Sequence to fold (657 residues):
Amino acid sequence: MPIADVKITSRSVVCSSQDNDCENPDIPLSRSWLRIAIAMVFAGQGMVFSLAINMTPPGYGSTSYWLLHGGLIFSSLLVVCFLGAPLIGSTIGMVRSRRLSIEGLFTVSLLGAFTGSLLCTFTGEGAVYYEIVSIVIAIYTIGRLLSGVAQSRLVKETIQIRECFDSALMRTEDGWMTVKVKNVPIGAIVRVQPGEPISVDGIICSGNAYVSETALTGEALPVVRNMGDVVRAGTWSVDGLLDIKVRAQAGKRDLDDLLQRVDDQAGNPSKFESQANRLIQYFLPFVVITSFLCLIYWLFVGSWIEAVFNSMAVLLVACPCALGLATPIGIWQGLLQLAKIGIVSRDGSLIDALAATRLVYFDKTGTLSDASMEVTNFTVVKEWEDRYESLQAMIYTLESKLSHPIARSITNFLPKSDLPISNFKIIPGLGVTGTIEKQFVEIGELGINPKLVKGEFLAKIVGSKGKPIYVFIDKQLAAIFILKERLRDGISLLEEGFKNLNIKVEVLTGDPNPGIELPLIVRSGLSAQQKESHIRSAIRNGLDPLFVGDGINDAPAMTVSMASISMGSGTALARSIANGHLVNDQISAIPKAIHFSRALHRRLRSNLIYAASYNVLGMGLAFFGVLHPIVAALIMALSSFVVTFRATYFKFNYNSN
Fold:
């Protein structure tokens, strides 16, 4: 089975749009956005009617008065029933757990707006703000929806990976039977056919094969595994039949540990969410205490109606709507600009992380280098120099029968040819053989013919870094290929770009012997757990690390880093974890994105200061009873206009320092 057919991107791992039994995640997403749009329509309608009522109120008790006020009350309650359940449930949970969170601030503002407006409706005094109910719920629902979609996709991908490696062909008294991995005991013998996934951790007791371990170790090429070697769940047998003696039960495999680390981190709040929650710990009590003091103050200096109205007005203007307007508009504009730079994301926290990071970690295989290899040296023995074109034709003909990554690299290097071939045979873990033009051709590892390579010829390639592939014709060495990983375009610009930004860059790779030279610090032979440890160490040192990767073995590091970016060609799990994806795998976009995010972050910070100042000013005006409806409307309109203008019309020069 061709290697292309057994990658982690097969149907059993990635849910494609062609799968009939696969739920399209965009369907519930579209329905949720429709509900939010409906809520915003009610909010807009309520804003128009509230402004009209406040500026030219109808006579108290008249038919038009009750129709207008009743319509506003009904639309507010309808939005609460339509979208308010998550906010109400989260607030109840907050109270039960005796903690403070952003849900509390949203709920307090919502209650303040509705109660104050209701009081105005039944007394005929003051102003109404029923539209605030719809706005608060819509803003909260949007944030919850975006985080929920990302979370559900991540969970779905981890489940699909587990299912892909959830069964095995086990030897029993009745013969070979396919069973669930959880029913495979330690010491059992499991058989893996060529091109199938390896679902157990164990030791090969029979057979040999090329094993693709890229997803777990990051090693670019399949490695040779023989009898006595250790293999792990999450890898693939490329070309050989293997019998494996199990040494770890389901739940104790390295793959299980890796996915469990992803699950454990998936529900944890990000650094920026934690900072927001810490801010709420102070701001929410401040708002409630201010409202209570306002109530007490006006009970002494005014009427009870004024006391209740003004205290509710304090809660109303403490609504995080201005904050919720300042940041989302700027973030969405920023995400649009990031897409133009080359990074696609729907996660606003990526901009915060890019602006804050002082250390960027890269995976190597599939990230800094292409998944494919390239031929860097092709040496032909003297006896075949005068038959060079004929030799190339025979090699191409034999290798073109395979979809192995090594074979693809060789055929990409040679001119096309299609000679008659017979006796074609794959030797698992070693290479391929066949008869072409009455000559016996062997191509593969040194082990395919170890005694036929002359020492003086090997001396010519000892200094060549890369993987050697040997060609034998009629049991005589004819040529040697040297293959190396191919670096992506833009690598040479990375070091200078990050240096200008005063950012450290390191490479974390599971490949024990990186075959490429990089102008960066490279830490090789790392397991997924060791990569995660490096990330945690950088976080403790306050470097706010960013991780860029593409494989399953990168998943734990991606979940614990401040933010992560996946390659567009990365595995489904990496893409579901990542905060953003590189368009066309152009890694040169990352320094530009960091430069832009820092500038945008400064603009957003100033917007937040402005919006927070509005909240404090509004609370002060409400406390002393001078928050006239027209003044409030003007302040809200002016605040929204300034924030929107500053966020929308943000110009940035990517070439500036």
Remarks:
- The radius of gyration is 32 Å.
- The first helix runs from residue 26 to 55.
- Residues 1-27 have pLDDT under 50 and may be disordered.
